[in-house]
Amino acid sequence: MNATQSTLRFLGAAGTVTGSRHLLETREKRILVDCGLFQGPKQNRLKNWDPFPVDPRSIDCVLLTHAHVDHIGYLPRLVKDGYRGPIYATHPTVELARILLADTAHLQEEEAKFANKKGYSKHNPALPLFNQRDAERASDLLYGVSFGDEFSPIEGIAGKYRDVGHILGSGFLSLKAKDREDGTKKLLFSGDIGRPADTILRPPSQPYNVDYLVMESTYGNRLHSHQDIKSELAEALEKAFSRNAPVMIPSFAVGRSQSLLFLIRELESEGAIPSVPIYLDSPMALKALETHQNHLRDLNLSCRAKALSGIDIFRPQKLRLIANQRDSKALCKTTDRCIIIAGSGMVAGGRILHHLRQNLPNPLATVLFVGYQAEGTRGRALRDGKKSIRMFGQDVQVRAHIDAIDGFSGHADYLEMLAWLMAFNKPVKRVYLTHGEPEAANALQARIREEFNWPVTVAEENTPYTIDF
Length: 469
Prior knowledge:
Largest sheet: 7 strands, mixed
Shape: globular
Strand content: 15-25%
Number of helices: 14
Radius of gyration: 22 Å
Distance between the termini: 12 Å
Oligomer: single chain
Number of strands: 22
């Protein structure tokens, strides 16, 4: 390969919103940006069991944009299969990744154990994709860097993270080729782009001098509601409370759970909703809550000001933290008015499944969705009005009220993404769209072409793209 040419390959998140794995081959080295699990439809999840498209031992370093499982969850398997290099991320991402990797490994082991116990797996015995030891070995390779600090993942390349406002610690990653005779070239990976006015996070930073852009397209064909999410949440909770039954909120442990606690506390303090028992039933969310409290400096100005005034911004009056499984099982039996916040956010696994199995048949109960539900997930099926849901090898009837607030999304919509691009100080040589279902990616491709007249490619899985970098 020419010394000034590099190759991009998208080993996941191409034609789908999960499994982010972007491979940059440059200077006879391999850099992997993100290393996520496939989620959603079964045909996607089965890809997690396929051999990795390149030998993990041939990868020189891994760079993470943020700590969601669809961006980091495959790391233990990569290490299990021989990867031994460094894994770079921002300091908050390192802390959150250690929590999520341990939890994901635990879920893998528990689901395999449960499948063997109930006998509903097609494989005998059912095995986890990776185990706790693999997660620990992956965590040992994590190396934290600060926002704005330059680091060198390989010789000739300088990396830098800037806040992108998606979850705590999330950053877009710029890679600069500094060893070229014709000047510096910049390749930027957006990661997941956050909202300009998030409840607790800073708005996305603005990049400049970008030559090549790898960009997410999750909401490439959608606009978020302009309604105030605090008011929407108050309305949804008041309606659910009137039925005097549990309100179950499937929620991502990192980011969404903390935003919910912040807003519920605000609504209580304003007298907009009554104070009811609130159960945060997720060991991972409990640890993520502690990480957020330890990184208040990385939150937005409003949150920092409230914290400095002495407010415990993430603690509603009757918050109960559910750590152990025994208390979680006891909570499943409650029929009283309360809020149960549990993972996973797309109802793909975790403790929310047990609460749903118990409460979905109850016509007084409420399931309140506060996040994106990918195609093929149980969450999408419930939002689409399915009358029964398969879980734990059984069909569970859906009689509960299903409600949703779309404004909670941590992803920018297409106007917000275009507004982010609008401030770029020069045309981009080519944009590669990833992390979106085909309709969303194609729609965003057309909009970028129309608005900026930039070359845009919707990435295809495992197709090599040559760039001058």
